[in-house]
Design a protein that fits this description.
457 residues, four-stranded mixed beta sheet, globular, binds pyridoxal-5'-phosphate
Length: 457
């Protein structure tokens, strides 16, 4: 690409670090600069339209510009644009949002702790877990079990819970107390002849074996997303959470549901915990909490956890934890209004109405020679690209098939979230059935283009 000196492209390359990007390649390719958003579409500086199949980073639930939320932010900024909630200070919208989240929670929850990102919510939860076991007189319970390929954030503790090798490589992570159990990806990891239920039983057994090997008296908590997002939009196999939760209960291990992606309608219920009948002790949530338009996250905790936290606060003299922008009046005002919009539009009814087109359209792609599997629920799911459908063999990484798919998708006006050999779909929740059809039309053309080029080469 030719860089024009002083262009935005050149300035970007000269000055900006891009997360989850190849830094050297970026010097060559430069950025895609998005300058406008409307509904489920975004536009680059040349006015090219892209259908955003992943709602940005799974978060722009109401699309890429929402005037009503802009007005609320403006009004709040002019009324009181900042005040913290440290040392007994408070603000109206933080109070109202906390109360609303407790009212909405899928299981009885007692208190809400605000942060600014999903990573911080999970990071905070790690500390709360450790406080909890101190208060219970069992400080040796420190180990936290996550799952291979799970993603819970980028701060050092959240990355430690995560099970993605690239998040650990070259950084000395995970921290000592963190362990990882099996990746419950039935399509990819099933044994010959193994049913989904049998696979789930094997996953639960692997968790129990790990707990026993570590010593149950040292295990503090288990973390899981209802649907694994950045691991590839992988749905839990049948019976998985029922069996996993039985193991957790047996050893009195805390369960934290990471609802950062699944919370607020993504799986066809308000919470992924409702879709999969989870009984978590704490819930982390973010993203669609503010429709992705403000950086806010929340950690919900039940009364048992809160009581323990209070004991620790008594011992130390206060709760020695917090963030300057936690409970920020503008982020909480926007989140509160977002939840009002969800109520008014009956978000869950909308997602359920669009779900057949979303899941059915995805399943229809299974007939494509490049697609081995498609599975989705609500408005989240993925297709898996394979070289050979019968053996589920993948293309070698050097062939860069996924890179070609991403490039062809762009040409066809589609922005995709590609994870390994999977293509995740999690469009804005306001997407219509007709727009879902258009998304898959562009996807099929993209797959055809990619296959066509492969055959030529
Ligand atoms: C399940 C899950 N948890 C946590 C996070 C981290 O959230 P954030 O990027 O806001 O720190 C993410 C981000 O994608 C996520 O998908």
């Amino acid at each position: 690409m030719t860089q024009i000196p002083n262009s935005l492209h050149a300035l970007d390359v000269a000055s900006l670090i891009h997360p989850q990007s190849n830094l050297r390649a970026h010097l060559e390719t430069g950025p895609t600069i998005i300058t406008k958003g409307k509904g489920i579409f975004v536009y680059d500086e040349d006015g090219r339209e892209f259908l955003e199949a992943a709602a940005g980073l799974w978060c722009a639930s109401l699309g890429f510009g929402v005037e009503r939320l802009a007005r609320v932010a403006y009004e709040q900024m002019t009324k009181v644009g900042y005040y913290h909630i440290y040392r007994h200070a408070s603000n109206e919208t933080a109070i109202e949002l906390a109360a609303k989240l407790i009212e909405m929670a899928p299981v009885p929850m007692s208190k809400v702790f605000f942060q600014c990102s999903g990573s911080e919510a999970n990071d905070t939860a790690v500390k709360v877990v450790w406080y909890f076991w101190h208060a219970m007189g069992k400080p040796e319970r420190r180990k936290i079990i996550g799952r291979k390929m799970a993603y819970h954030g980028s701060t050092c503790a959240a990355a430690s819970i995560s099970g993605k090798p690239d998040m650990h490589q070259e950084s000395g992570l995970p921290f000592d107390a963190f362990r990882h159990t099996e990746f419950p990806h039935y399509y990819r990891n099933q044994l010959p002849g193994e049913t989904e239920e049998q696979f789930s039983a094997r996953m639960a057994q692997a968790l129990e074996d790990l707990i026993v090997a570590e010593g149950p008296e040292t295990v503090a908590a288990f973390w899981a997303e209802p649907v694994m997002g950045a691991g590839g939009a992988v749905l839990p196999p049948k019976g998985y959470f029922q069996k996993i939760q039985a193991v957790l209960k047996k050893y009195d291990i805390l369960f934290i549901a990471d609802e950062v992606i699944c919370g607020f309608g993504r799986t066809g219920n308000m919470w992924g915990s409702q879709t999969y009948d989870l009984q978590p002790d704490m819930i982390s949530c973010a993203k669609a909490l503010s429709a992705g338009l403000q950086p806010i996250s929340a950690l919900l905790m039940n009364e048992r956890v809160f009581q323990a936290l209070m004991i620790e606060s008594d011992k130390v003299g206060h709760l020695a934890h917090g963030y300057t922008y936690a409970g920020h009046p503008v982020t909480t005002a926007v989140a509160l209004e977002t939840l009002k919009i969800y109520d008014e539009m009956d978000l869950i009814a909308h997602v359920k109405a669009v779900e057949p087109a979303f899941v059915g359209g995805m399943k229809a792609l299974e007939d494509h020679p490049l697609i081995g599997e498609a599975s989705g629920i609500g408005l989240i799911g993925a297709i898996e690209v394979v070289k050979d459908k019968a053996t589920r063999q993948m293309f070698p990484a050097e062939a860069d098939v996924m890179g070609q798919i991403a490039a062809n998708a762009r040409k066809n006006g589609l922005l995709l979230r590609i994870i390994g050999n999977r293509i995740a779909f999690s469009p804005p929740l306001v997407i219509s059935a007709a727009e879902v059809d258009e998304m898959y039309r562009r996807m099929r053309v993209t797959l055809d283009d990619t296959l066509g080029a492969m055959r030529v080469n």
